[in-house]
Design goal:
The chain is mainly α and 440 residues long. It contains 18 helices and no strands.
Amino acid sequence: MDGHPDQFDGRAPPDRLPRRTPLNAPLAETLSVVLLAAALGWAVLRPAGRSEAVVAVPAAAVAVALGTVSPEHALAEAERLGPVIGFLAAVLVLAHLCDVEGLFTACGAWMARRAAGRPRRLLVAVFVLASVVTAVLSLDATVVLLTPVVFATAARMGVRARPHVYATAHLSNTASLLLPVSNLTNLLAFEASGLSFSRFAALMALPWVVAVGAEYLVFRRFFADDLPAAEPAPDDGPAPALPLFALVTVACTLAGFVVASAVGIEPAWAACAGALVMAGRALVRRRVTPVAVVRAAAPGFLAFVLALGIIVRAVVDNGLAGALRHVLPDGSGLLALLAVAALAAVLANLINNLPAVLVLVPLAAPAGTGAVLAVLLGVNIGPNLTYAGSLATLLWRRVVQAREQRVAVGEFTRLGLLTVPTALAAAVVALWASLQLVGV
C-alpha cells in the first residue's frame, strides 16, 4: 500500500476507499447483493453441468458497467487475485497429473492393506490419507480424485462406504488448514497475514491436528453402526507400483513453496514449475494431451473465482464491510478469536466460504495475524455444516451422486451440527495456544 487512495491490497478495510457510482446507495447495494446471489445460486445448482462462470462473469461485467463497483476497484481486485488464480491453476494441473501417474491408485491399495478388512481401520486410513492429500495437493484433489478411490476401496473390502466417503467431504474442508497452498481461502488469508510459508504452517499445525482429531472422534460415534468390529482379512490384490517421480516432484514443489516464500517470490511460480515438470513428462510419454492439461486447470472455474471476487468487492463497497465491522470483535484474545471464527463460519454458510473470506480478511487484518487466522478457521471448518458452505462440498455431492449414491441433506446437516462446533472451538483454542508458543 503506497498511500494512493484507490489502491487496495487486502489489508486496508475496503469501505474506506472512495466509491464513484452513478447509482444511489440503496439501489447499488441491492443490485450487488442480487448479482452475488445469482452467481452463487448458479454455482450451487450448475444446471446441465454448465460452468460456474456462465453467470458470474456476466454478473461481474454488469456490476462494473452499472457502477456498483468502480473500474479502478475491479482492476485492483483482479490484480490482487491474479497470483492466487495462477497458483490454483498450477495445483489443479499438478493434482491431475499425479492421478495420471497412478498416485491415487497406489493410495487406494495402501488403504486396503492398512485396513486389512476392518472398517474402523479403513476410517483411520482415510482420515490420514485425506488429511495429507488435502494439505499437500489441495482440497480439490481430495474431492475429485480421492473420493472415487475411497468408493473403490470400500467395495474391494466389502464394507459400507458411507462413513469413509463422508470423511472425504469433511476433510476437504477441515484438513485444508495446514498450508497456504491447501485451499484458495488459505492463499487469500496468507497474503494478508504477513507470515512466511513456514511460519504459517507452524501456527496452523496444532489447529490442523486438533480439528482433524475432533472430526474423527465424532465420526466414530456417529457412524458406529457402519463400523462394526471385524476379523482381520488380508488383501491379496495386486499392489500397484509407487509413482516415485510424482512423489519426488510434489516434495520438490513443497520445498519450492518454502524457498519462494523466504525470498519473497510468489508461490505460484513454484507451483507452475512442478506442474510443468509433471506435464512435460506426461506429454512426452503421451499419457495426456495438451487439451487435457488445459482442461485440468479448470479455466471456467478460474474465471468464476475472478468474477466472484469483483462481485464481492461490489457488495463490500456498498455497505457489507461497514455492517460487519460493527459486529466483528477486535483483539486477539481467546474470546475474541472464538467470536471471529464463529462469525466467519456463519457467513460462510450464508454466502459460501470464498466470498466470506474475501469480505472478512481485510476487516480482520488490522486486528492482527491471530484474527486473520481465526477467520480462516471459520471459513474452512464452518462449511461442513451445509452443502452451500463451500464449492468443494458441492463438488463432492456431484461426485457421490454420479455414482448413484444417496446423499441425505438431513444426515449431512446432523453430522455437521456435531462436528463443526466441536472442531471449530477446539481449533481456535489450539490457534490461541500456538500464537502464545510460536508467536508471529
